[in-house]
Amino acid sequence: MSYGAAAAAVTNESLAHESPGRAPPRPVPVTLVPARSGAGELAVEVAGRGNPVLLVHGWGVDRRMWAHQAAAFRRHFTTITYDRRGCGQSTAQADHALELEDIDAILDELKLKGTGIVGMSQGGRVAMRYAMTRPTRVTGLVLQGAPLDDAPAPLAGDASVLPIARLTDLLRRGDRAGVARELSQHPLMSAGERRTQAQAEIDAMLKDYRGEDLLRFSTTPAEIDPLRAADISVIHAPTLVITGSNELLWLRRIADRIARNIYGGRRRVIRGGGHFVNMTHITDYNRCVVEFLVNTTRPWSERALGSV
Prior knowledge:
The chain is of the alpha/beta class. It contains 14 helices and eight strands.
């Protein structure tokens, strides 16, 4: 299939999963991939056929945030979602230092040499690190609301700053319900007004957040291994940087900076979307990402030939 034909196949029917009622996607069997370091396993779902795309979820949530992407993407790609360490159904303990190794384990288990990667928020940090250190395994990169650590951050009193100390205290007191309530009201976790179904889906994930990363470590990934704009200039995978127009201002500015610092990086903004734009503006998001990945995930030889 030529690129033009593939792009033409990206229709509203194949991408839309935000119709009235938001019918839940069909369940997909879960594969448990053993972690290479330490005990435990990673919960992985694989659906569809075609060139592979791995979806990496953000902090505080799990692979369910990609449900409406997985349902649409599997018409075009072998679509892989998984629960990061300490999240969802994965039993491997939270450890930011092992997350790149986890992606290696998943790809090797599925016998994949490489994949396109979509990373949201802290999942975008993981995706960028992977593209920097395993360039031959990344065929394309989509970054949604991803952070950089040398960009101006909001002031400590800014409502958009996560109250990490407060959340850690609640977790130590065993008040996971209190953590879920605080996170649900935070601007980063807001689906926006009138997006009640999307908010319910986000809240369901927040209720299941175990907080292992906060309980096990006193430092954040930004403090352990800061990611700077100059670092990401080594990324050569085709890259799309995407946010909603209602994303927090400092994250929109970081998105602009990421796109400028990755050679050939493209920047897209989805009108009306916030941090979870993939869950609130599903059709627009899916079309934008699929049209980008449908070309970049194909080997260069096939792109040159214009056929698959």
